[in-house]
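pasting input
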Amino acid sequence: MKRLDQQVAIVTGAGRGIGKAIASHYAREGAKVVIAELDKSLGESLARELNNTAAEALFVKTDIRQFADIADLCTKTQQHFGSIDILVNNAATTKSLDFFDITEADWEWIYSVGAKGLFFCMQRVGAVMKAQGHGRIINIASIAGKGYPATSNIAYAGAKGAVIAMTRIAASTLAADNINVNAICPGVTRTELYYEVVKGKIKTLGKSEAEIIELFDGSIPIKRSNEPEDIADLAVFLASKEARNVTGQSWNVDGGLVCD
Ligand SMILES: NC(=O)c1ccc[n+]([C@@H]2O[C@H](COP(=O)([O-])OP(=O)(O)OC[C@H]3O[C@@H](n4cnc5c(N)ncnc54)[C@H](O)[C@@H]3O)[C@@H](O)[C@H]2O)c1
């Protein structure tokens, strides 16, 4: 028996990076996976890849900034698979920005996906889970949300702090309905987003790529940055029955950068 046999899991932003690793690990563990992704070609490609194995996957083109898309995602998931057992709120956006250069448009872009979209996914899917009498919600935050300063920008850190706070409040609100809510706070993780932030820092700090990577990775106590799979392994545990009494926590996966 696999660890997530027959569980139905929605993963937002699953087209690449950490979300893709989580969707793939879930599929390997027997879950039916819904890829809720803005980028059609990334989403379709992962659905094809997973459906070519023993897994069942469904791509639903979703922009989590749009209420109508979130409602459509829930309807299509229920129609196709019959329930929603797990929600992984992974989608977020950021870029490298100096403190003094952040504009209102940057702020709205970052918060509309990473905080607002994430909350309304929790609210809409939480209602389905409440009616079912069970559920697991896993929010992908960041150590930036705990004040780790070597991040892409301060607005992103604030949005991730909001995710950590909302995780605690959602956990206490939904506990009586048998819904566990936890956050994972990745540190430096080698995805496309990471390399985009590195490129931005080359410009803002006037350093070479090697120097920026050394800045990010050199300070990690365990001397190893994450692969997306490091986050996916914890996401499997938090969705599994072994984590049935774990809720309201924010778990760092960062090689020891932030200890709390
Ligand atoms: N990579 C890191 O170093 C790192 C560190 C800490 C936290 N995180 C967090 O991990 C999560 C995944 O990061 P990643 O590095 O894999 O990012 P990524 O940019 O590589 O992937 C994000 C995915 O989300 C999708 N997406 C963007 N906006 C969307 C929207 N409105 N609706 C639906 N999908 C949307 C993108 O198309 C993309 O496929 C994010 O929450 C990020 O903040 C990443």
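fyi The chain has eight helices and seven strands.
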